[in-house]
Amino acid sequence: MPRSTITSENHSRHPTLAPGRLAGDDVWFVEVVFPDGRVDQVGAFGDQSETRDWITHKSAAWIADYEQRRTNDQ
User: Fold this and answer.
1) Mean pLDDT lowest for which of 41-45, 62-66, 68-72?
2) Per residue in 15-47, is it b (16+ CB within 10 Å) or e — as a string?
3) Burial class (CB in 10 A: 0-12, 13-18, 19+), 60
């Protein structure tokens, strides 16, 4: 198995988080891309700065909760 595939598989076990904005609106959210390809939106923030702050300071707890639920569901 090529090394890049192993790295990709290890990386894909965790959701990816990025700020997003509703089109034509001043509402920001965190876009979550799950390892299985599902995409969800978390929160409603007033601006990109608040969204990035949530990602920086609060997403680790959210991810840990997500991982715990995923483990319990298996």
Assistant:
1) 68-72
2) bebebbeeeeeeebbbbbeeeeeeeeebbebee
3) exposed
Indicate the DSSP class of residue 25.
S
Cite the DSSP H helix spans in 1-74: 3-11, 48-57, 59-73
Question: Per the structure block, which two tokens stand in for 62?
Answer: 């959210």
Neighbouring residues of 44: CB distance < 8 A, sequence distance ≥ 6: 27, 28, 29
Q: Which two tokens stand for residue 33?
A: 């891309």
According to the model, what pLDDT value does residue 3 have? 29
User: What tokens appear for 29 in the block?
Assistant: 């959210």
Distance CA 65, CA 39 (A): 17
* 13, 59, 26, 35 alpha-carbon torsion, rounded to 10°: 10
Sequence ranges of the domains in the chain:
3-73
